[in-house]
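note to self: dont lose this again. the chain is below, predicted strucutre after it. 524 aa total, dont forget to put it in the shared folder this time
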Amino acid sequence: MKTNIYILTLLSLFFIVSCKDDDSTGTIDIIDPVDPVDPVFVYVDPNINDGVIDFEEFGPSFEQDTKEDAERSNGGNWSEFGGTDEAKISIEYAENPDKSEPNTSDKVLKVNEPELSNEWAGFYFKLEEGMNFPDGKEAIKVDIWSPAGTQVSIKLEDELVNGSDGKKQTGDIFATKQQDGWETLVFNIPEGKDEDGVYNTFVIIMTRFETAAGVSYLDNIDFSTPAEVIIPDAPTTAPAAPTYAAEEVISVYSDVYTSPEGINLNPNWGQNTVVSEEVIADNTVLKYASLNYQGTEITPALDVSSKTKLHIDYFTGDSTALQFFLISTGPQEKAYDLDITTSPGEWNSVDIDISYFSDVVDLTDVFQLKVVGNGTVYFDNIFFYGGGSQSGTNFSPTYSGTFDGSVYDADNGTFEFPSTAQSWAGFANTAEIYPLSFPNGGKVTFTGATAGTDIDVYFRFEANPYPDTEPSYNSATVTVTGTEAAEYTVEIPSQGSNTFNSALFYLVTQDQVLTASNFIITVY
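---
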């Protein structure tokens, strides 16, 4: 704890002396000093258990000498993340720029984000002790000053280094500004994550999914009654359009791809389900209302044995059970449980490994699909893909986010890892390509050339940007050689169900300039 006390003291002493003759008496009139205004601010780890954190009289220092290192071993109590060597988030105490409801306080935290910050740039600070959630207040509220539409995320975590055994955190919790200026945002703690005495670190990203320069403010962090969650019962937007090459797709239902003739979307199987098609955001989707079960017949049967994945987009706001079946002649059928709890009221996408069905279903003879569940469900982009010579979904990363001493020259497309940089210095992707997953593996390709000395490089994928990085995967090292540009490929084995929201590029060889371009991440 560092204390910085500013004291202004004013003393005024006037002597008035008058003398008359030898027996005159001198007099001294003393004017009492005026009590000064005593603005005292103490740098200290705040304690939310004692009341709202309002930053009026005390708070973290946000000075460089109290910044925590990457290993969380130097006794620091705060840090920023997601910036580059050229541009990092800065945090300072400032006067309230807009004393209006809901925040009329004098002092607030000012957060300045330069244009070069990554979309996940933010900061964290330590609390004096772990949070203890009062009954009925399993949420955190924060006053935020920023434009309407800004997405803000917080995360609560313990003091352990990311990746440590026993590390605990809530995961990212999101809220969206509905109005300009001050607004109180409420972040509901996920069920089962409201553990008392655990979370002593407050993490916040003030402008999630944005990279433009800007200034925002925050104040008044406190416990809160959870916000009511209203789940939409119907979509207002279309799901993301698939980009897989048409020649590699066998489509059952999609506006993007042409489906074969002979597909009956509503055969009479005695179901209660009401089937219809609706146009939402200029995109046609399939609607199942009052679902109990619903079939699709395919004549002639499809041979999907050469494909590796089944893709499905689906939306539901009220379903509590949802299964998707592949059926071959027999009938031989197998169900896949679709996740309806993680993101209800949103479009969800799933890419199912086709081998999941192969122990029961004859993949050369798929003649029916079936959905079993309840509620109202919307479907789109049901298709099989993968397995071709160019199979996979391609993503184009931009590794322009330098950190901890790495050097990137955008004009010439060069990368360098100086010996003066930190040992973990590298390059972060700044393009919007997340999330990434590799259930069937994948690869990274790029074009590279050296100035004459061989350069070793590798790629890293993390669950989230620092500090919540695990699970993670480091690719094999590939050696770039020669001064003529050539294409290089790094294979990525299956990563199971892991999902990644951070893609990094590293040079192993120091003090050599690498020219690299045309980075492509392919998900099989």
